[in-house]
Amino acid sequence: MRIATYNVEWFANLFDEHDQLRIDEGWSGRRDVTRSQQIAAVGHVFQAIDADAVMVIEAPDTGRKNNSVIALENFAAKFSLRGRKAVMGFSNDTQQEIALLYDPDILSATHDPQGPETGPEGATGAPRFDGILRIDLDIDATEDKVVFSKPPLELALKTTSGFEFRMIGAHLKSKAPHGARDDAHAMQISIANRRKQLAQAIWLRARIDAGVAAGTALMLLGDLNDGPGLDVFEDLFGRSSVEVVLGSEGQHPLYDPHAARALGQRLGAMPTTSRFWIRDEERFLQALLDYIMVCPSLRAKNPRWRIWHPLDDPSCWTDPALRDALVTASDHFPVTLDIDL
Fold first, then answer.
1. How far, in Å, CA of 79 to CA of 104, rounded?
2. Integer Cα distance of 293 and 3 in angstroms
3. What is the largest CA-CA distance in the chain?
4. Are 108 and 157 in contact (CB under 8 A)?
């Protein structure tokens, strides 16, 4: 079985108010890319990876006028994808949903949130992901209230052969210091936002611990927007969100070979899953942001990971149509996992 995670930059911009693809020459959310160009590129990439299930990060919006599930299924029909059925969890107000697009002939997938509902007072531990976590972020003996701007998607899945497992789709993001009065204030806001992101990672880790301890076969997929060597806050906080979610040997560790490689070295070439244009410096920055992390029981099922990087993966590089589509479609590249389920 092939499982993927793919962050499609501003996927929502490619659909109209009726959840139909806007195949025209208007600008997409991508720099210097029209909607028709991005739609064709995204479709080509989905066809190429040909996955049984894709965790779509930044999936189309769900709101008063739009429905992410309908939009994704319309997209799948347009490009005749095997993965033609969509499921999502709690919607958010960022226009960037988390959803799974999957092949219903291969497996079933159901939104199955865990943990207690909290209400406005919040709860400690591992409440439901659309709730509020009470946690002391700055060791001042006062609990802060943390929420997910993009609640993770928890799914119960079952293959046609009867194997049951769970997925958590996640998109963690530390907000930029909007509204800062000066550099010192910007740093203060940035540190507070990073604390919240680490709290969200702790929240995810608590859910992972509970699931794996109960014998659940579990994987976490998505964009954690953090990692070893990514920014100045790593030294300040000691651990990245990636390290928190992966866990330690004393917990129930998850595994992703790209994360393991990056964490095992501070110098030299590292795997990357994204490529961003830095306007002020007029250059591209590459980073490892996207992961498929598996529990020990799934690691025993012959998993094979691949980053579909147009410049680093030889098969992508030697296929000009796929190479160009990967660059045009998004500032992230798909990560796939082939596993014997």
1. 16
2. 11
3. 59
4. yes
Residue 77's Cβ-count burial label (10 Å; 0-12, 13-18, 19+) is exposed
Average pLDDT, the chain: 91
Tell me the residue type at 24. Answer: D
Percent of the chain with pLDDT over 90: 76
Cα 123–126–131 angle (5° rounding)?
A: 55
Q: Is 71 exposed, middle or buried (0-12, 13-18, 19+ CB in 10 A)?
A: buried
Task: Give 92-123 pLDDT, tens digit per residue.
Answer: 999 999 999 999 999 999 999 999 999 999 99
Give the pLDDT confidence score for residue 201 in this predicted structure: 93
Domains of the chain from N-terminus onward? 2-338 (3.60.10.10)
* pTM (2 d.p.): 0.92
Average pLDDT over residues 185-198: 73
